[in-house]
Amino acid sequence: MAGALSPFVYWAQTEDFISLRVALINTKNPNIALHPTKLTFSAQGHGAKGVHDYAFSLDFNQTLDPEESSYKTSDREVLFTLKKVKKVWWSRLTATPQKPAWLKIDFERWKSEDGDEEEETRDIINDYPDLYKNLHKEELGYIKENYKKVYLLIYNLFQFVGFTFVFTVLSIQYYRDGPNAMLHAYESVGSAMKFVQMLQILEIMHVMFGYTKGGLLAPLIQTLGRAFILFCMIDAEPRMHSKPVVFYLFMIWSSIELIRYPYYISQLYKIDVYPLTWLRYTVWIPLYPLGILCEGVVILRNIPYFEETMRYSVSLPNAWNFAFHLPTFLKIYLAFVCFPVMYFLMMHMYRARCKKLGIKSWKKFK
User: Fold this and answer.
1) Residue range 149-172: average pLDDT?
2) Cα–Cα distance, 341 to 60 (Å, whole number)
3) H or E element in which residue 273 lies
4) Which end of the chain is more exposed for a tag (fewer CB within 10 A), N or C?
5) E strands along the chain, which residues?
6) What percent of the chain has pLDDT over 90?
7) What is the distance of C-alpha 208 from the center of its chain?
8) What are phi and psi of 32, to 5 degrees?
């Protein structure tokens, strides 16, 4: 059509088909011609420039089968389903690298068809990373980072810096002052440790909202368990601040995180560093039992202190008709909860290690 404008056209693909979505409302008098390597379209409708005559022409990168292709019109768009002659993913839609400004990539419509009635969304970023980068460069001229990935990068990097600070300060003080440095560990890094530990609560929310994969139970137990030890057992009882076990506990926690957060950053960008992966799924073998042992010592040392102060305990009578004796709870925790929790976390990490490092689990003889 003479004087026709070009509508916005959004394209996506599967291994078998190309889909084109022409953003044209109330399409009238469509004139469409499909050839193996070319599509011409003209119609009247309401597009980006209002009610007008719209037209476009596309020269395709590869060959289509016009007989197996189809289109349908609706009140809001014209949708093309174009059959590829060869079952292959196209690196671009058009024959030339320079694509018209009105042609857009519709990433939300990239699908994978398995022959069933239901369609499974194709994760193009993970399944075809090179293709994704090329298409994004074609669309925007640069690679647009995912906001979720940027946030996780900042979070992991910040936590790494925080635990590096704790580990470095404690190491320097021990090198300088020897065992006497243990008496001042909480005074030196207690505030920093409380801050990074509070931020770790976000890791529970990361799983809940789908920012990270994996089960919720393991991070929930580990994060809340650490918070209980740090805030309720150490921070709330001043006499615990100068105990050497606090120094050991902070060093163990920091050693674990100095490996865990760089590993998470490498996985965000799909960079496999085998020594880092090996450390991530190996250092827990000595450090987890030592950490839980130190936590048990902290609880054990606190029992007489809380029996004396009755902090966090609730006595009868009261308005709620409820009683709670923290020292008794701590004794029950040490006897019946601490070791099952350690077993659960150790088995969780063992299964992850077998999966990640390709190590076969032990099997019983039949």
Assistant:
1) 96
2) 60
3) none
4) C
5) 9-13, 17-22, 25-35, 38-47, 50-59, 64-73, 78-84, 103-105, 111-112, 120-121
6) 60
7) 10
8) -125, 135
| pLDDT value at residue 108 | 65
CA–CA dist 61, 285 (Å, integer): 54
Q: So which residues are the catalytic ones?
A: 288, 295
Within 13 Å and on the Cβ side, how many CA atoms surround 23? 16
Cβ-based neighbours of 231, under 8 Å, separated by 6 or more: 194, 197
Over the Cα atoms of the chain, what is R_g?
A: 31
> Do the beta carbons of residue 189 and residue 197 sit within 8 Å?
no
CA dist 299 and 332 (Å) reads: 11
In degrees and rounded to multiples of 5, residue 91 shows phi and psi of -75, -25
Q: Calculate mean pLDDT across residues 233-256.
A: 96
Lowest-confidence segment of 106-115, 144-153, 197-206, 222-231 by average pLDDT: 106-115
CA 159 to chain centre: 15
CB 32 within 8 A of CB 51: no
3-state helix, strand, coil in the chain (%, to 5): 50, 20, 30
More confident residue, 177 or 127: 177
Distance CA 108, CA 21 (A): 12
Looking at residue 358, what is its pLDDT? 79
Work out the mean pLDDT of the chain and round it to a whole number: 86
> Is there a cis peptide before residue 317, judged by omega within 30 degrees of 0?
yes
Q: How far apart are CA 317 and CA 353, in angstroms?
A: 51
Q: What is the pTM of this model?
A: 0.64
Report d(CA 92, CA 13) in Å as an integer: 10
Structure-block tokens of residue 103 = 């042609």
At residue 344, what is the residue type? F
